[in-house]
Amino acid sequence: MKLSREEIISRYAAGERRFAGVDLTALDLHQLELSQIDLSGAELCRCNLSDADLSQADLSGADLSEANLTQIDLHKADLSGVDLSVANLTGANLEEADLSGVDLSQANLTGANLQNADLSGVDLSEANLQEANLRGADISGADVSNSRYCQTTFPSGKIRNDHCE
Length: 165
Known about the structure:
little secondary structure; Pectate Lyase C-like; 2 strands
């Protein structure tokens, strides 16, 4: 079911939180307050969610490929199994988020806060992790091949500068 920005706003304001499986492809949802929303399995590719609040949201299994997620708040969100390939997550707050099994290949995570996030089994190949904070994150089994990190804080607290250009 394809929904408009206005429909999401009015239904969310009326107390509805379950929007599982909806089609929001390429929709402009920037700056919306949608905390605790259920968008599991939703189509959000090429969507603009910049500066939106989706803290504690359920986005498991959603397609957020090529989405604009700059400065988004995804604190404690469930993003397990999400496609975030080629997404722009510059300055995103992903603290304590569940990103297990997520495809973040070629994603831009410049300045993102991933502190204490679950990144186990994540595909971070060719991702930009410059100035990202991974302190306390679980990156076991993550693929970081050809990733770019400069001033990146790794789980141990060590800052790495070996891929600065």
